[in-house]
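name: query_chain
kind: protein
chains: 1
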Amino acid sequence: MKQRKIKFLVLTAFSSMGGIEKFNRAFIMALVQLQKPMNAKVSFASMYDCETNEAYVPNANFQPFSGKRIKFVLQSFWQSLKCDDLIIGHINLAIVGILFKKFQPKKKLIVICHGIEVFEPVSGLRKKLLQKADQILAVSLFTKSKLIEQQHVPEQKISVFPNTLDPFFVLPADFSKPAFLKKRYQIQENEKVIFTLTRLNNNEGYKGYDKVIAILPQLIKSGFSFKYILAGKADEAERKQLQQFITANGLDQYVLMPGFIAEEEVIAHYLLADVFVMPSKGEGFGIVFIEAMACGLQVIAGNKDGSTEALQFGELGTLIDPDDSNQLKSALQQSLTRQANPNEVQKKMLSYFTFQKFKERLAERMSA
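structure:
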């Protein structure tokens, strides 16, 4: 039987720790492991990565182009002509997919859509890519609805394909708060920890951490003792603006912004917290929510984007209207008061979002 040839193209997979990069790494590893059952040979190329990680994919199967965009486009297109399936990991790689369908119209083109990149109408090459795609994988029902409403993609062409934990995510068995972080952040025994981990970008404004800061004075008046750790890489404009907001509200001793957190300390930060909160309005899915729940953490999210699916429509955590400060305050008060069972939180999340389930869904989609 002829071996099926599959190529997956990404912007980045190994040079960043964002949600899309995490998705790409899991997708790459799943394809590598499915080669034998699918009788396939898979290969990968990245426009911006400088190297690979052999824990996920052999070096021989992954070609990093280190930002050499023209070279990436030309070589990826040429190599795609020998493929049966071409998978485009982001619509910004549209030109390769369009050329592939022009010269190989009977071959299969699959496009992955994550979220914000398709929430507003696209045009030009990106619009044409969505039109030419044989199949589109959307990370959530919310992203699928945006593809239908904003991009006018036929519903039957879109499959919902949710995110997963990283294959190497170490599930905690001990949910004790790490002593070294309690010391670093000077967390007192009577203090609760509220946690948000996200990119802090002055141009986005949909993550909702500013709304969390805004209601903290009300928690203080209600007698709560806490620290709010707002972590993640921040651009200078956003950091400055947030610091001014924090100081103006008298919250300097309550809000900590440690910046970027190294990968090896992320799980420890989840364990330090009592509740993870991110009332966003523009998440395609929100992998941080399932990571937090994997660490037994209570989660609060907005009910107007793909976060609803990460929380399984409220089964796994608390969904609120991200524009309603009273709902946010009430959800935080309840989470800081009750004693959640971390084992139960972790177990319920794993019934939906494991790498094995992700791989099974991919095998199903590739056989469709």
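note: The chain has a mean pLDDT of 95.
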